[in-house]
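Example: YbhB/YbcL family Raf kinase inhibitor-like protein.
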Amino acid sequence: MVGSAASAERLQLEPLSVTSPTLQDGGPLPSDYSCNGSMGNPPLRWSRVPDNTESVAIVVDNNNSTTGAEVHWVVFDIDPRTGEVAENTVPVDAVEGRTTNGKVGYTPPCRRQENYRFTVYALKEKVDLGKGAPLSETLKSIADKTIAWGRLTTTDIE
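Written out as structure tokens, the predicted fold is:
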């Protein structure tokens, strides 16, 4: 888990189901979604969102043992009735925060031999930060509000 979001992982939470029509858990990240491609973010789907969810957030990251975690995408305040994000899009009225490199939006991964984690969080309330909010603030708010989460992990880039 990234930063203070690790506290959410220690809780015993009901897992969300996270899938994708183009990604397989444990499979490689297609190069189209890496810095060698041009497809932007991959499509993601999620289900089993608790009834008391007020918003949903997505964090895409990797956890490199030598350089530390790197966040490639943060999207929050997604309507809890939304169950997917399409390829190269942001859900209506959702907000994107800054990534590790300071940019807003999906920053395609480049390290070929890394695991990339696509984590969806169900939150008890909105993050309520503006577009481009600092990464540390965004991750702390997500961690503090998490009531359930699920993850799809890719291994390496094709």
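Confidence is low (pLDDT under 50) at residues 1-10.
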